[in-house]
């Protein structure tokens, strides 16, 4: 009997020690700051939902410990009331080692696979004290796990948030107006509050924001390339504006300076640049796409913009060249006349009456509005006169009538009367004056004497050039 009682007492002490150890562990758990945070009622989102499920087993553990305490207290009371023989000790030992604790019905397993505890019932499952202690210890696993996750989140979130904030603000300086980045910065600013109320949800949110920032950093290189293309497009647009202005100016100048000019083209209308859906508003929309971070759409749109801009620029250059060709020809003829006068002075014929007369006619032929064909003929007559030796009278002076006999090869000599008429002022011009070299120079002609011609219209310039629809 003594042997059985001692064994029973030792087994009771072992189970009591295990019971007290588990109870102390649960008490320490409940006193933890993280546990108090989880049970404080101020949580939201992911953390609140997970805490509700993970903290429920704690109550079940206390119920299980109560069932174990009831068993152990009953055996201890029996031992204190009467002597226990070997048979009674064996029966009590069987209760301590066998399935003597009934757990209630209902859902058979909690999270992690442990059976649920309930009130004793004949329909329930019975377990041994050791098995109950193991089950109760296992019941605390979800609670410990969520507490560890929340501790880690609160410990790691702030440094990660600081780093993310710094990187995002640096990128925001480089990419002002970038829409995804602007939204990212706003979400980062809201994270500190979420860390307090929903640390586990904040972990998921922060991880997503870090991924978004990494994507923006990768896209920054592509955005930089597209931005450079936009800058080149802006330079093309400026060049196109200059060429369009050249075409309009050349058109106006030629109509003023040239009589009945051939080959004029209508200037390209400026609305292909400025009005919707012109090139300038289009480029502004592409710039906004780059600013908002949409590099792919901006790149695709820029390719179409470039094709239309190049086409428009090619047409504008053709118009500018065609419209400038007549007045440039007049300038070229004026240069030939000046060269002829220099040549006359070089060969000692600056005061030759013949040369003076021919030079005066050529100068008057260049008055505006200028007949280019007549001016070219007059200058050719002057050059031909310089190539021929001057006829001389017995006194060695060139005859005045020689001016009427000089002309381009194959031309018909003019009469003196015609020469007198030619010496008069050109239509729309003024009478000439004589400089120190003896060559006549016309007084300036105002633009009001010009006779603008009706220009030929270019089919390609008369319509809108490639405006996007």
Polypeptide structure, described:
It is rod-shaped and about 175 Å long. The longest helix has 59 residues, at 199-257. The model is unreliable at 106-116, 118-123 and 393-469 (pLDDT under 50). The strands form two sheets. A two-stranded antiparallel sheet has the order 1-2. The protein folds into four domains: 2-139; 155-222; 236-326 and 457-462, no CATH class; 337-449, no CATH class. The chain has helices at 2-31, 33-38, 45-81, 86-97, 129-139, 141-174, 179-197, 199-257, 271-274, 279-291, 295-346, 353-365, 372-387, 416-422, 459-462; strands spanning 101-103, 125-127, 432-434, 440-442. It is mainly α and 469 residues long. Strand 3 (432-434) and strand 4 form a beta hairpin. The chain has 15 helices and four strands. 68% of the residues lie in helices and 3% in strands.
Summarize the SSE layout with pairings.
Layout: H1 2-31, H2 33-38, H3 45-81, H4 86-97, E1 101-103, E2 125-127, H5 129-139, H6 141-174, H7 179-197, H8 199-257, H9 271-274, H10 279-291, H11 295-346, H12 353-365, H13 372-387, H14 416-422, E3 432-434, E4 440-442, H15 459-462
Antiparallel strand pairs: 1-2, 3-4
Helix pairs in contact: 1-3, 1-4, 1-5, 3-5, 3-6, 6-7, 6-8, 7-8, 8-10, 8-11, 10-11, 11-12, 11-13, 12-13
Properties at a glance:
469 residues; mainly alpha; 4 domains; two-stranded antiparallel sheet; two-stranded antiparallel ribbon; 68% helix; 3% strand; rod-shaped; disordered C terminus
* Gap between N and C termini: 108 Å
Going by helix content, strand content and strand pairing, the class is mainly alpha
Shape call: rod-shaped
Task: Tell me, rounded to a whole number, the average pLDDT.
Answer: 79
List the total number of helices.
15
Q: What is the number of E strands? A: 4
Low-confidence stretches: 106-116, 118-123, 393-469
């Amino acid at each position: 009997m003594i042997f059985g009682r001692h064994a029973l007492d030792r087994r009771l002490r072992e189970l009591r020690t295990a019971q007290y150890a588990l109870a102390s562990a649960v008490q320490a758990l409940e006193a933890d700051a993280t546990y108090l945070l989880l049970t404080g009622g101020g949580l939201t989102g992911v953390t609140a939902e997970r805490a509700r499920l993970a903290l429920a087993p704690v109550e079940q553990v206390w119920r299980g410990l109560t069932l174990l305490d009831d068993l152990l207290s009953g055996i201890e009371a029996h031992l204190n009331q009467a002597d226990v023989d070997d048979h009674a000790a064996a029966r009590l030992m069987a209760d301590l080692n066998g399935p003597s604790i009934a757990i209630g019905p209902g859902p058979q397993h909690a999270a992690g696979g442990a059976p649920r505890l309930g009130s004793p019932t004949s329909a329930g499952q019975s377990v041994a004290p050791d098995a109950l202690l193991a089950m109760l210890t296992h019941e605390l696993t979800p609670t410990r796990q969520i507490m560890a996750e929340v501790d880690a989140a609160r410990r790691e979130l702030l440094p990660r948030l600081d780093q993310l904030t710094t990187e995002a603000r640096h990128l925001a300086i480089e990419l002002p107006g970038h829409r995804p980045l602007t939204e990212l910065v706003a979400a980062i600013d809201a994270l500190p509050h979420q860390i307090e109320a929903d640390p586990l949800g904040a972990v998921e949110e922060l991880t997503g924001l870090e991924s978004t920032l990494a994507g923006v950093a990768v896209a920054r290189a592509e955005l930089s390339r597209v931005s450079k293309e936009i800058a080149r497009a802006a330079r093309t647009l400026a060049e196109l504006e200059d060429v369009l202005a050249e075409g309009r100016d050349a058109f106006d100048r030629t109509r003023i300076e040239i009589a009945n000019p051939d080959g004029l083209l209508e200037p390209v209308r400026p609305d292909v640049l400025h009005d919707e859906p012109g090139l300038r508003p289009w480029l502004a929309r592409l710039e906004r796409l780059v600013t908002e971070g949409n590099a792919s759409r901006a790149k695709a749109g820029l390719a179409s913009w470039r094709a239309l801009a190049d086409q428009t620029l090619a047409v504008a250059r053709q118009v500018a060249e065609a419209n400038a060709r007549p007045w440039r020809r007049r300038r070229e003829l004026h240069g030939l006349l000046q060269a002829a006068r220099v040549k006359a002075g070089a060969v000692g014929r600056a005061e030759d009456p013949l040369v003076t007369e021919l030079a005066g006619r050529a100068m008057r032929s260049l008055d505006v509005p200028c007949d280019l064909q007549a001016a070219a003929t007059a200058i050719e007559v002057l050059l031909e006169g310089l190539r021929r030796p001057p006829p001389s009278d017995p006194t060695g002076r060139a005859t005045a009538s020689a001016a009427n006999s000089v002309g381009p090869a194959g031309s018909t000599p003019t009469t003196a009367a015609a020469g007198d008429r030619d010496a008069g002022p050109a239509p729309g011009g003024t009478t000439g004056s004589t400089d120190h070299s003896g060559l006549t120079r016309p007084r300036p002609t105002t633009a009001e004497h010009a006779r603008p011609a009706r220009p030929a219209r270019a089919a390609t310039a008369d319509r809108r050039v490639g405006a996007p629809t």
